[in-house]
Amino acid sequence: MKSFFAVLLLLPSLCTAFSHLEARGGSLYDSSGKEVHFHGVNVSGMEWGAGTPWTKGCHDPQWGGRFGCYALPPEDMYDRIAGWGFNMVRIPVSWANIEPVEGGPYNEAYLRGLDHIVDQFRKRHVAVIFSMHQWAWSPAVNAEKYHSGQFIHGNGWPVWLYDEKWHRVNPVTGRERAKILGNGKDGEMAAAKEFFANGRRIEGKKIQRKFMDVWVMLARRYKAMENVIGADMMNEPYGNRPGELEDLYSRTGKTIHRICPQWLLVFERSLSSPKFEFARMMRDDFPKNRAVYSFHLYPATWDEPGMNRQGEPRKLGKDVFTKQLKKAENWDVPLWLGEFHLVMRDHSVERSQSEAMLDFIKKNGMNWSYWAYQKDSQPLAGESGRGPVNHEILGELEKEMKRGQ
Question: Fewer CB within 10 Å, N side or C side of the chain?
Answer without folding.
Answer: C
